[in-house]
Amino acid sequence: MKRLTVPKIRAHKQDGKVEEPLVMLTAYTARQAQLLDEHCDMLLVGDSLAQVIYGLPSTIPVTLEMMANHAAAVVRGSYHAVVIVDMPFGSYEQSKEQAFESAAYLLKASGAAAVKLEGGEAMAETVAFLNQRGIPVMGHVGLTPQAVNVLGGYGARGRSDAEAKKIVGDAKALDKAGAFAIVIEGVVEPIAIEITENVAVPTIGIGASGRCDGQVLVAEDMLGMFERVPRFVKKYGDIAETISATAAQYASEVRSRAFPGDEQTYQPKK
Ligand code: KIV
Ligand code: NA
């Protein structure tokens, strides 16, 4: 199977509509990518790896090197989905030139096809600059976790008219600037619908609306790796329970010398 491309993702939305919603999940490791790849149109190497993989309190400390290493693993582990890599906080906001240098590094180091960055209006010029120079960009509006210190938390955005207007304007600016798709995270539903109906490119919702042109979740949240997840997550599995029960069984067999048995032990040739 040939790998999907960014233009194919973009072309999924025609005349303001998608026939079938786009499917995106996060992946940070080769094995995770192998397992998720065939089911997804896009794999996102999200900077949410901060919390999920590294136990960090926010995405602020994530570095370009961390993103490049995980993105390379995900590209090696997949052959079907488009791999998109998050630009970490501090690697693109200063100027469009800084953004190009960081994005080029990420794509060279990993083989990913595109980057995602947070922000709307303020990032529009940067999105156009990158796109014109060979780097497709996915936008991300609404709750933008890298701005947690400005927003003051991870609550849903757009509850006031002014904020709603700002978020819709952000998405329209990214659309105009040439973003190939836009993630809408953590907003009250009418905003997600208004954006989806008013931008040419596919919208990918997370805590947004079932009427977005696609959906994304953090894979570990959806797989049931964590006890506490945001309201917008639906747990489709319970791998935390599976891992815990399996580790308990292993520990018990090691302690009782039931493992390793004859089957797991080499003997010299007779
Ligand atoms: O980092 C991430 O996982 C993301 C998605 C939740 C959109 O940005
Ligand atoms: Na992210």
Number of helices: 11
By secondary-structure content and strand pairing, the structural class works out as alpha/beta
CA radius of gyration: 20 Å
Instruction: Write out the distinct hetero groups bound to the structure.
Output: 3-methyl-2-oxobutanoic acid, sodium ion
CATH-assigned fold name: TIM Barrel
Helix content: 25-40%
Mean pLDDT across the residues is 97
Topology as H/E string? HEEEHEHHEHEHEHHEHEEHH
Q: Provide the number of structural domains.
A: 1
Strand arrangement, major sheet: 3-4-5-6-7-8-9-10
Beta-strand percentage range? 5-15%
> Can you identify the CATH class?
Alpha Beta
CATH architecture: Alpha-Beta Barrel
Subunit structure: Homodecamer; pentamer of dimers.
Pathway: Cofactor biosynthesis; (R)-pantothenate biosynthesis; (R)-pantoate from 3-methyl-2-oxobutanoate: step 1/2
Organism: Alteriqipengyuania halimionae
Family: Belongs to the PanB family.
Q: Which descriptors apply to this entry?
A:
transferase; 11 helices; methyltransferase; two-stranded antiparallel ribbon; globular; 10 strands; EC 2.1.2.11; about 270 residues; binds 3-methyl-2-oxobutanoic acid; binds sodium ion; alpha/beta
Any overview of this molecule?
It is a single chain. The protein is of the alpha/beta class. It has one domain: TIM Barrel (Alpha-Beta Barrel). Helices cover 40% and strands 15% of the residues. The chain contains 11 helices and 10 strands. It has helices spanning 6-11, 30-36, 49-52, 64-76, 96-110, 124-132, 148-151, 161-177, 189-198, 219-223, 239-255; strands at 13-14, 17-18, 22-26, 42-45, 82-86, 114-116, 137-142, 181-185, 203-206, 214-217. The protein has an 8-stranded parallel β-barrel with strand order 3-4-5-6-7-8-9-10, surrounded by 5 helices. The protein has a two-stranded antiparallel sheet with strand order 1-2. Helix 2 (30-36) links the parallel strand 3 (22-26) and strand 4 (42-45). Helix 5 (96-110) crosses helix 6. The protein is globular. Bound molecules: 3-methyl-2-oxobutanoic acid and sodium ion.
